[in-house]
């Protein structure tokens, strides 16, 4: 009798538990990847203050013809390697891409004039730097000089793994105020923004963005140090677009523009006539907002002044952990202090400067003259 009672009690308890379990609403935690942790960038491009700032509301320093690296070379616009440029604070890398046998190469007007190597090798360096610096947002500006379709670039980006790191916008064009914040770009892993000056097609390659529907530019190849802030090239609404100032001074060599390294310290300085700071001030007055991109030659001339200008505009301190690289030019025999000319004043004229150039530059000058006769002005 007792045994039957206990058996009935056990059966009833089990049945009751089953009914309760069946009636209780089930709860499933959101599916997560193994070890998934929500990322939240707290320092973006070196400053916590920039994490909540829209990409379209930040000023970045860019290296004009970043791949064209050399010393005392008429076709060189920089004299520090790409990794050094990035380590020092460059956050836009501009380049000129050419369709050559064997693939896309980075050349200056012509690969016979200056050949900076393959796009794939260049992007490999960029990828390595991005991997080593996970809290940085970087942009690339590609001058698609041979009008290649966007699909020609896609395999190169995929081969080095940059396609998965590149931001794809929801539409062809966006006002400056609607771009994602730096923090959200970093959190998403899409912290590379790639612009093509022509040939962009979001349907075929959604991460290669059209420059001139999103960014307008001031004049380039300027030989007058009085830089203005007039619109030179655009395809969009300049009142809402981001914008880029071409702040690099050229000098005429055989009637063709070439980088004026002799005045780079003045051109890159934070204040004074012809300075980067002066042009930014002009632009703020004319446009009501600062430029988004400051494109410069020989960025390290001035001892970091180009980065000081950007920091002032962004409202953050400029306090690099290490000083920027010293100018690599051997013309003066020593590094520039940021105030004195890198090439001595006795070499201020173009003809005197040419004395320092090697035989290869004489050939380059001859090429420039011949090419200009046949095709018109060259893009340097």
From TrEMBL:
<feature type="signal peptide">
    <location>
        <begin position="1"/>
        <end position="23"/>
    </location>
</feature>
<dbReference type="InterPro" id="IPR051057">
    <property type="entry name" value="PI-PLC_domain"/>
</dbReference>
<protein>
    <recommendedName>
        <fullName>Phosphatidylinositol-specific phospholipase C X domain-containing protein</fullName>
    </recommendedName>
</protein>
<dbReference type="InterPro" id="IPR017946">
    <property type="entry name" value="PLC-like_Pdiesterase_TIM-brl"/>
</dbReference>
<dbReference type="GO" id="GO:0006629">
    <property type="term" value="P:lipid metabolic process"/>
</dbReference>
<dbReference type="Pfam" id="PF26146">
    <property type="entry name" value="PI-PLC_X"/>
</dbReference>
<dbReference type="GO" id="GO:0008081">
    <property type="term" value="F:phosphoric diester hydrolase activity"/>
</dbReference>
<keyword id="KW-0732">Signal</keyword>
């Amino acid at each position: 009798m007792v045994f039957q009672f206990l058996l009935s009690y056990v059966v009833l308890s089990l049945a009751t538990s089953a009914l309760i379990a069946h009636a209780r609403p089930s709860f499933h935690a959101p599916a997560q990847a193994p070890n998934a942790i929500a990322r939240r960038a707290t320092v973006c491009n070196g400053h916590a203050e920039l994490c909540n700032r829209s990409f379209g509301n930040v000023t970045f320093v860019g290296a004009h013809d970043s791949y064209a690296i050399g010393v005392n070379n008429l076709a060189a616009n920089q004299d520090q390697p790409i990794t050094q440029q990035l380590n020092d604070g460059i956050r836009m890398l501009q380049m000129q891409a050419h369709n050559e046998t064997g693939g896309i190469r980075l050349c200056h007007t012509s690969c016979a004039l200056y050949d900076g190597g393959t796009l794939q090798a260049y992007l490999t360096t960029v990828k390595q730097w991005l991997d080593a610096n996970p809290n940085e947002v970087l942009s690339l500006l590609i001058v698609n000089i041979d009008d290649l379709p966007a699909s020609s670039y896609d395999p190169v980006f995929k081969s080095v793994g940059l396609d998965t790191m590149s931001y794809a916008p929801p539409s062809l064009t966006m006002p400056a105020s609607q771009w994602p914040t730096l923090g959200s770009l970093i959190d998403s892993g899409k912290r590379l923004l790639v612009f093509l000056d022509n040939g962009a097609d979001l349907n075929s390659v959604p991460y290669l963005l059209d420059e001139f529907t999103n960014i307008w530019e001031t004049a380039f190849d300027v030989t007058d140090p009085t830089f203005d802030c007039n619109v030179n090239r655009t395809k969009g609404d300049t009142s809402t677009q981001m914008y880029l100032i071409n702040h690099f001074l050229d000098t005429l060599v055989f009637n063709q523009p070439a980088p004026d390294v002799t005045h780079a310290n003045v051109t890159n300085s934070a204040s004074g006539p012809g300075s980067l700071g002066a042009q930014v001030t002009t632009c703020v007055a004319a446009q009501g907002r600062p430029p988004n991109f400051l494109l410069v030659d020989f960025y390290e001339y001035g001892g970091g002044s180009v980065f000081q200008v950007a920091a002032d505009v962004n409202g953050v301190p400029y306090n690099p952990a290490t000083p920027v690289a010293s100018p690599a030019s051997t013309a003066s025999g020593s590094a520039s202090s940021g105030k004195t000319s890198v090439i001595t004043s006795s070499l201020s004229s173009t003809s005197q400067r040419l004395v320092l150039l090697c035989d290869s530059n004489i050939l380059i000058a001859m090429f420039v003259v011949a090419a200009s006769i046949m095709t018109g002005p060259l893009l340097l």
